[in-house]
Amino acid sequence: MTTAESGSLLAESVYRTLVDQIFEGALPPGAPLSVPALAARLDVSRSPVRESVQRLIHEGLAVHVPHAGARVLQLDEDAVRDVLAVREALDGLAAQEAARRASADDVAGLLELVERQADLLEEPTDPLRDARLDVELHTRVREVSGNRPLADALRRLDAQAHLYTSGMWAEESNRRIAVVEHRRIADAVAAGDADGARRAASAHVAAISVRMRRWRMSH
Amino acid sequence: MTTAESGSLLAESVYRTLVDQIFEGALPPGAPLSVPALAARLDVSRSPVRESVQRLIHEGLAVHVPHAGARVLQLDEDAVRDVLAVREALDGLAAQEAARRASADDVAGLLELVERQADLLEEPTDPLRDARLDVELHTRVREVSGNRPLADALRRLDAQAHLYTSGMWAEESNRRIAVVEHRRIADAVAAGDADGARRAASAHVAAISVRMRRWRMSH
DNA sequence: ACGGGCGGTATTACATGCAATACCCCGGTG
DNA sequence: CACCGGGGTATTGCATGTAATACCGCCCGT
């Protein structure tokens, strides 16, 4: 994170609002991000809004079009596949390093997250909540890996991919498969099996890629 | 690139100036980046400077310290190793995809760059120039890979690592080894040998990591 | 009817004003 | 001599002013 500091930073709260709206669909891919319009809508000046929009661009959630402001990122299928290809390599690396360095507490926290996700299978679907928990789980693994540049790189990629994979959480089968695959990763990390963790994590992302393509075709 | 557009964007030129000064050592790691001070020194208003500094932060070349502005990134040895570990995975992936997709022109351009680097061995050392050519070479491979998210992620990592590896170009042996390793990568890409390219590129980064550690110890 | 040029409009990019706030040095005190 | 508190100072963060510029729809000429 750049700063985090929960201090009442206006730009920070604007940023979070925009991110939330993007993920909730209020700002769909391709939507224009006009600084004056957003400033009026959120009732703040243009400065924090401009800063937030530029941050979105840097984080890869928006693109800057030369003379027409910014727009929410719009990926075609190939681009999503590219993102997932990178994640395949990096999440594998993260899991591998996590398996080497995980403390007992780390392992406990990880397993607990997986169980929480498993418990949610009994409840009705809430795609947004499920997607968030999934992000948290992956994020945890990356934190445990202790490699901050790695975690930073993955955070960006995640944000982009989740614009296009979050819808999949609505489907029961995908939720079940995800839990199984997550458990495999967590177990390997718990066992200190670095290579197994790497393979499990890479396979998980690869499987997401396949599922996504199928899901998109059936739409 | 994010915007690039040749328009005379003040913020863009300020950004480039700052990056140059960072890599040339005028702004060494840990140096404070005071917005008003830089604005006065560069004779522009604070707006483009503020924007540029925030961009540096997002790109990973500077860190924001809660109540004391920003400072040029300062990595310890472990962090550099982490960065290189990520690059090992990603540059391998980039070379692999490049080998699959390279056109005849791509290959020609790549080989020409390597030869240019080889020719430079005959001339006296110019660390800054050599480092730039090295970046260009790696960047070219990533462009050829056609995976933009991958190239973007690597660009950031490169920037960070180069703060700490650029000094190595002063040494003759390192320059020679680099050319050899680059040629291996380029040859594999030219031959369409995806797996060989991946291994060559990963090995190259791993070797950089080893050389860097040795170079740092000898100081 | 259709193509080309033109003004209205909204936007960006930059400059600057302003208040709040945290740091630092320095002098005073136990 | 060590420690603590207060004022000065510089900085951030936000708001707003302003010029240049590119786009869009409309009107006019052919």
TrEMBL record, chains A, B:
Q: Which InterPro entries match?
A: GntR_C, TF_FadR/GntR_C, Tscrpt_reg_HTH_GntR, WH-like_DNA-bd_sf, WH_DNA-bd_sf
Keyword Transcription annotated: yes
Spell out the Pfam families in the cross-references.
Answer: FCD, GntR
Enumerate the UniProt keywords alphabetically: DNA-binding, Transcription, Transcription regulation
Sample GO molecular function, one term: DNA binding
PROSITE patterns associated with the record: HTH_GNTR
The UniProt transmembrane annotation reads: none
List each copy of the HTH gntR-type domain by range: 8-75
Q: What is this protein called?
A: DNA-binding transcriptional regulator, GntR family
